[in-house]
Amino acid sequence: MSAGERRGHLLALFTIMVWGTTFLSTSVLLRDFTPLEILIIRMALGIAALTVARPRRLRLKSRRHEWLFAGAGLTGVSMYFLLENYALTFTYSANCSVIISTAPFFVAIAVRLFLGGAPMGRSFYVGFAVAIAGIALLSFSGDLLCLLAAMCWGAYSVFLKKIETYGYDTLLVTRRIFLYGLLFLLPALPFTPVRFDVGALLKPVNLLNLLYLGLCASALCFVTWNVAVSRLGAVRTSVYIYLSPVVTIVASWLLLGDPVLPMALLGAALTLVGLVLIVLIMAKSQRHFTARQESLGKLNGYVEEMYSGHEVVRISRAVEDVNAKFDQLNRRVYDANWRSQFLSGIMQPLMNVIGNISYVVVCVLGSILAINGTIEFGVIVSFILYVRLFTSPLTQIAQGMTNMQTASASAHRIFDFLGSEELPDEHGKTQELRQVKGAVRFDHVRFSYPDSPDKIIIKDFSAEVKPGQKVAIVGPTGAGKTTMVNLLMRFFELNSGSIRIDGIPTGELTRENVHSLFSMVLQDTWLFKGSIMENIRYGKLDATDDEVVAAAKAAHVDHFIRTLPGGYDMELNEEASNVSQGQKQLLTIARAMLLPARMLILDEATSAMDNVTEELVMNEVLSLAAGKNIIAIAHRLNSIRAFDRIILLKNGNIEGDGSFQELMQHNLYFQELYKAGI
Question: Which listed CATH number (3.40.50.300, 1.10.10.10, 3.30.750.24, 3.40.50.880) goes with 440-675?
Answer without folding.
Answer: 3.40.50.300
